[in-house]
Amino acid sequence: MKNIFKTKILIPSDVQLFIKKNILYVKGSKGTIALDINFFNNKKDLFYSSFFRLFQKAIVGVSLAFVVRLLFVGVGFRVESLDKDFIKLKLGFSHFVSIKIPKNVEVFSPKKTLLVLKSVNNQILKEFCSKITSFKSPDAYKGKGILYKNQVVLLKEGKKK
Q1: Domain ranges in the chain with CATH number 3.90.930.12
Q2: Which mean pLDDT values do the consecutive 10-residue runs of the chain (161 residues) have?
Q3: Is 109 within 8 Å of 72 (Cβ atoms)?
Q4: Which of 81, 87, 80 is nearest to 102 (CA)?
Q5: Model's pTM, two decimal places?
Q6: CATH second-level architecture of 66-148?
Q7: Beta strand residue intervals within 49-151, DSSP E
Q8: Does residue 9 contact residue 55 with C-beta atoms inside 8 Å?
Q9: Into which CATH architecture does domain 4-63 fall?
């Protein structure tokens, strides 16, 4: 395992760091992320590496932002409408599925079968994507469902006569 205390973090010129009441704020061109320092000070050596990784992700997020693309594979699986606060999905049920969009996640749909999600905070973005994919996870036999852009589904072999 690499010693994280010997590695250097390169901070871009447009990223600003400041501390208020034991909270580290990382501010960049795309937004701001707050990291609680006290949580990691109370814990010992185990959490220093996780704080280091969260700090790295915060710097990348505020300078570039994280993007996730979701594909809707299958007949009738599509994004029905996008509002400011809700996504309306058609997933093969008898009803539409409405999902509330978190306040710091941007969502847009260039096609009916593609959903692009963008956020500064990687953790919130991944949680929201996993919530969306949990409604229709990929089928093991046909490959239908909601998949990440480069996700490969290994299909099982069906019945043989």
Answers
A1: 4-63, 66-148
A2: 72 91 91 82 65 88 94 92 92 93 93 94 94 92 92 89 81
A3: no
A4: 87
A5: 0.86
A6: Alpha-Beta Complex (3.90)
A7: 66-73, 78-82, 86-90, 97-100, 105-111, 114-119, 145-148
A8: yes
A9: Alpha-Beta Complex (3.90)
